[in-house]
Amino acid sequence: MNVGFIGLGQMGKAIAGNLIAAGHRLRLWNRTPGAAESLVREGAQLAEQPAGVLEGAQVLMTMLADDDAERAVLIEQHVLERAPRDLIHVNLATVSVGFAHELARRHAEKGLSYVAAPVFGRPEVAQKAKLNVVVAGEREAIRQVQPLFAAIAERVWPVGDEPERANAVKLAGNFMIASALETMGEALALARGYGVAAQDFLQILTSTLFAAPVYQIYGQLIAEERYAPASFRLQLGFKDVRLALQAAEAVHAPLPFASVLRDHFLEAIAAGEADEDWAALARLAQRRAGLGRSKR
After folding, report:
1. 13 an active-site residue?
2. Contact 70, 95 (CB under 8 A)
3. Residue 293 has what pLDDT?
């Protein structure tokens, strides 16, 4: 398929690389063109402006950081305005439920198909084409882009026709991950207070009661205090918890622990840790307990 692709951060670059490897033809745009160099060597073309990726495109895929980045590119730089009417836009980004609803309306007004398709998985998972994609939107549009999902994902999870449903699932899932990070940090502070090594404690729990990928992957990062370079920045974790709170308020669903997480993320950001991996949230509990770096 002919694909326009916007957004080449760690996740976007890995996804675009897998699409190229699967034989799809990509035209790329990124705010910093240097991020596209390796993909151009693999056969992709680089557009000078965001709307340039639309040339000959059947599908537009975007993987941008947040609502503001999406609005700046898609709306303020006139990408949607210049899109051909038969284009399908697949939005891989984690955006607010409110903005997802706005995007669905804007696409419908212009006769464009819109599919929300946020992904679960870190960059190393994206590189292996093992992402889990949560999709919502027009069924026919989703059917048509299945070859693209097959190139990047282990499984696709449809959740309905309204695109904002996929973003609600993504925000709820990221809230659960943030809750796991906080839980591991607090539990580790308790265990370390009695002289148990971080590696020993987390290996026991992530091999038994909590033998799930989220606990195992992040447990290892926490045990090793390996927070840089960041695959998913703490600042983005704060953004997603804040968006989860906004979405919950809109449907009158109390999320009391999300409010705690929001404040803890703010505390970490105030301590200068915004660009570390969001697993660094667990370090706050160690500091509150008067514990320094763990002995491994």
Report:
1. no
2. yes
3. 74
